Amino acid sequence: MPGFKRIEKIREILIRRNIDALLIFDEKNIYYFTGFPWGFRLLIPLDGECVLFVHAVNYEAAKEMAENVRIDLIRVGERADEKVLREIGGYRFKSIGFDRASASEYIKIKDRLKDTIFKHLEDDIWSLRKVKDSDELALISRAAELTKRGMMKAIEVARPGLKGWEVAAEIEYEMRRLGSSGVAFDTIVCSGPESAFPHGGLGEREIRWGDFIVIDVGAKYRGYCADMTRTLVAGKPSEKQERLYEVVREAQRLAINQVRAGVKAKDVDGAARKYIGEKGYGEYFVHGLGHGLGLDIHEPPAISPTGEEELCYGNVITIEPGIYIPKFGGIRIEDTILVLEEKAEKLTYLDLDENIPTSN
Ligand SMILES: [Mn+2]
Fold first, then answer.
1. Separation of 138 CA from ligand 1 center, angstroms?
2. Given pLDDT bands bounded at 50, 70 and 90, which one contains residue 177?
3. Which CATH architecture fits 134-359?
4. What band does 360 get if pLDDT is binned at 50, 70 and 90?
5. What separation in Å is there between the alpha carbon of 10 and the centre of ligand 1?
6. pLDDT value at residue 243
7. pLDDT tens digits for range 332-353
8. What spacing in Å lies between the alpha carbon of 119 and ligand 1's midpoint?
9. Is the pTM of this model over 0.85?
């Protein structure tokens, strides 16, 4: 699935940075370049074959799934780190880039390859990963579709008397049944005062009449995530609930209207934050407006007040303003958005988005 383009692109970066090879530790990054989810390390030399190191437990799977690489087996009982270091040492690279390593891994590799210069190139990999290619967009769109189906199920079943985890189970069953490989994060279904916690509570509270119910769902498809939140009211919304909901919805609309190639992330955040502030709820919007997503649920670019970076065609981000009033409840509306040249495309649009969804 990844094809060879991504490796060509990272090699162009290595040439520009005058680095001889890239050593990748992160499984998601390995997957990005090879299509194989359980690699131990991936070596991308500037010239010559890429080498995927895999443990014996994953060897047969790697032979079937991994693209663009020679597979190097780490036998049962063999010290994986040692093997990788020994083999890399044989190349006599002057400089090696890496994505990320634990402190102990870094110390070990520096110790062993004393004449080699190590360069942290994580941001260079992100510069590729945050611009999705057409294969990735197809997978993210599928994840978004599955997420929408989970959300529709939630709206159908959520009602007073049910606990958060009971609704979450229905959502996850629906998504799995339709082909999702799992969840992008633990499903949040929280109601009443618990909905004022952006990450939810324990999910054990029973939904009661009049509650806000915040439902935050993400399906996963072939490693790719989607992310979506809707807020329902159990029964008829009060005036205050309607007012709050409208503020969040308008804030999201204003922010999405700003999204296009070339806009700064902080200006998209600012559009929502300014409006919520003007309505008097600024202090209750306690997180950034959104985040990139793809193989990871949180990726660059961050859509926050400090986000200096310009959005570009192919970014996939969330736009998720919220208002969280302690002891009362919270509202969040979140969509997964594709950044296009002149506008945004909402990948998680639902028809019922025109009204406050209610449950009964
Ligand atoms: Mn999110």
1. 20
2. very high
3. Alpha-Beta Complex (3.90)
4. low
5. 28
6. 97
7. 999 999 999 999 999 999 987 7
8. 31
9. yes
Residue 2: what pLDDT?
80
pLDDT tens digits, 235-269: 999 999 999 999 999 999 999 999 999 999 999 99
What separation in Å is there between the alpha carbon of 105 and the centre of ligand 1? 31
User: What's the fold here for domain 5-127?
Assistant: Creatine Amidinohydrolase; Chain A, domain 1 (3.40.350)
Ion ligand 1 — residues with CB < 5 Å: 227, 318
CA of 165 to the centre of ligand 1 (A): 19
Domain assignments of the chain as residue spans, ordered by start: 5-127, 134-359
Compute, in angstroms, the gap from residue 237 CA to the centroid of ligand 1. Answer: 25
Among all chains, which residue has been given the structure tokens 């060879």?
4
> How far, in Å, from the CA of 355 to the mean position of ligand 1?
21
Distance 187 CA to ligand 1 centre (A): 11
61 pLDDT tier (thresholds 50, 70, 90) = very high
- Report CA(183)–ligand 1 centroid distance (Å): 13
